[in-house]
Amino acid sequence: MKYFFIKTFGCQANKSDSERIAGDYIARGFKETSNWKKANEIVVNTCSVRQRAEDRVKGFLLNIEKYFGSNRPKIILTGCMLHHQKKNLLKLLPQIDQILPINKVGFNSPAIRKDKLHAFVPISSGCNSFCTYCIVPYSRGREISRPMEDIVSEVKDLVKNGYQEITLLGQNVNSYGLEKTNIKTRKSTLSKPKSSPPFVNLLQEISKFKDLKTINFLTANPWDFHPALIKEITQNRKINRFIHLPVQSGSNRILKLMNRGYTAQNYIKLINQIKVAVPNATFGTDIIVGFPSETEKDFQDTVNLTKKAGFQVAFIARYSPRPGTVAYRLYQDNIPPQIKKKRWQILENLINKPHLSTRPTIR
Ligand code: SF4
User: Which CATH superfamily is domain 3-104 in?
Assistant: First the structure.
């Protein structure tokens, strides 16, 4: 019997990909081990969101090398570190034997899930938004939506097998099925909605399964939050009232440098529209502090937005330049680490500390 071990770094999208990589190994007759020292093949599913995430991958590979010496198991690298050119990657991580592009994993390998009640279901992969700090459009490629009938069929099987809660996953779930429509056109349909976007149709389809109790989705982006989606949340009691809506900054100047496509005022307007339509809605967000050139005034704008939005939880990151991104090429990482830390701490105290005992559990 041959054994495989998967080490997953990073976000829920990576965890979901790892479930499908495991499914592929099982289909090929391998058995999963929870101990990498017993594995014949080790898959390292990497994260690149910050330099520290890449350093942890390096550390893990060095441990393997130290333990096995030259007679080590086959090491396969996948995930977001694949944005590095192959030549650089092999120089950076000389232990790797094979590279598995994440889009080769595919949506349709059967997922091996450890949780038996709650399942993560990918509905799209990649991203077309090109926020200037983000590596995803380069590491995961352009946005591709999974056919609706495949998603519905997977959810049907999950419900049949006792799953009561699902989380629909994508880098931008609410642009599901709209990857061929450019952002400008999508934005103009927000003010004059003609029909429901495909994501709303998908929510309606999977809500028809009687035994499915809760539907979450991650990550929804502000610029694609269609009025029909707000209406659907209002009417559909299966949709979780906790909404994760990354804002990244409260400064319009920084939002522009980030290429986020909305202003702080648009963002707060959207939050207020949702609060009026769904009075028990709560919100989570992602924020980056110390983006290049972020002044004290820019940061105060973020603090003010945070107070207005009333977030229940925030994933606060200190800006880390990622090679290959526009921000890395064009902007100087000129905010000193101690200032980044101070700003991070202020937001932690403001958002996360007061809610520690009531934090939502998804993600
Ligand atoms: S929306 Fe922006 S931050 Fe999110 S994955 Fe796409 S490029 Fe990255």
Answer: Methylthiotransferase, N-terminal domain (3.40.50.12160)
